[in-house]
Amino acid sequence: ALKELGNLAGAWQCLRDAVALQPDFAAAHCNLSGVLREERLVDEALSAAHRALELDPDSPIAHSNLFITMHYSGRFNAAAVYEEARKFNARHAKPLTASALQHSNDCLPERRLRVGYVSADFRQHPVGFFSNLSW
Q: Is 54's pLDDT higher than 90?
């Protein structure tokens, strides 16, 4: 809640306290990773994300934090980031493909293609600014 209110220092302190009180609390390490990344403490954010994944290897949020934070670090080349994306896919996305619904739309190549964009980031975020959508 503190992070969402823009109080990163308060969020950081609460999460450090949570980790100190319960070092095996994966969600606290996961959230700490996000706050540290926001504070541009990339190496610390990577450490927190790794710890969260050690404690909860099935957490897609912790794995996503690690993957995103890798983009902010100069320690990883494109091949390493790609490999982490493949790991994320294998662990979190691929198991869901069996339950994906089949599309019933017409698949003829001549038909008109309709594209829709869905994102929580279209308003006050670079994704929205770069997409040139007007609200």
A: yes
